[in-house]
Amino acid sequence: MESSQGHLTEGQVFKILQDKLNSKPCRNQGFVLDGLPETFSQASMLFSTEDTESRDSDVESRAPGYNKIITPDYVFSLEASDDFLTERVRDLPQGGAEEAQLEQDELLSRLSRYRRLQEAEETVLDFFDFREIHSEHIELSADDPEYVGVVKRITEVVGLPKNYSRSFEEHKEGDPLKKEAERRQVLAAERRRRKEAALAEMAAQHEAWHRGMQEVQRQEKERLEAAALPLRIYLMEFVVPTITEAMTQCCALKPDDPVDFLAEFLLKNEEE
User: What is the DSSP string of 165-210?
Assistant: First the structure.
């Protein structure tokens, strides 16, 4: 990277491009390469399975095995005169030409480079011809400004576009991801509802149990009070008056042995 002053080398660029062409989207849905590769050596670097430095110069050695997975099935060469291209660029808005780097000097430089590449001993189209992938030459002209003929010819060679999106029936049924998300939301809401219902039922059961316990305690208290009533009457009639009198005498006299005093008082009261 230091020798290239921070720029990717050609080999690194084509290695990245190879990885992209080997990706699932490109292998499943196809791809379009526009302007790359530009030369025979670049095509060899990108598509061949052999080391380009080890090949001889004869035609047979120029057609080794190639990576059929990433090599295009169709090659189109759009041909136009310099005057046509110059006029087409001249019709572009000023901002569009600058953005595409197609100002007058840049355009002439790029056209000159392109013509030199096409006059080379072996061109990028030769790479495909050697592998029986013959390019389709399509002439561009001012008579077809919308390039309807170009699109028609490409369609005749390649076939009608293939729709990789969802079908009308699938669209009508709705987005499966959205439906799955909605289904999960419904399930989550149902789980929350069941949890809240279970908690409410538990709270109601606890409240009923608490009220039941309070009622049991009240009834037990009433039963004990009812059972203790005869005993209370007996004590109040025969025991409490004597004990009360004994306690009163004890408090008034303050004997040294209050227990013995109470015992003697009760015995004396019993004899009387």
Answer: S--HHHHHH--HHHHHHHHHHHHHHHHHHHHHHHHHHHHHHHHHHH
